Amino acid sequence: MLFNSIEFLLFFPIVTVLYFLLPHKYRWMHLLTASCIFYMFFVPVYILILAGTIVIDYIAGILIENAEGHRKKAFLIMSLVANIGVLAVFKYYNFFIENIEVFMGWFGIQADLPLLGILLPIGLSFHTFQAMSYTIEVYREEQKAERHFGIYALYVMFYPQLVAGPIERPQNMLHQFHERHQLKYNNVARGMRQMLWGMVKKVVIADRLGLVTADIFNNPHEQSGITVAIGAVFFAFQIFCDFSGYSDIAIGAGRVMGFDLMTNFYYPFRSRSISEFWKRWHISLSTWFSDYVHMPMSYSLRKYRLWGIAISTLITFLISGFWHGSAWQYIIWGGGCTVLLLATRY
Question: What are the domain boundaries of the chain?
Answer without folding.
Answer: 6-178, 183-265, 267-346
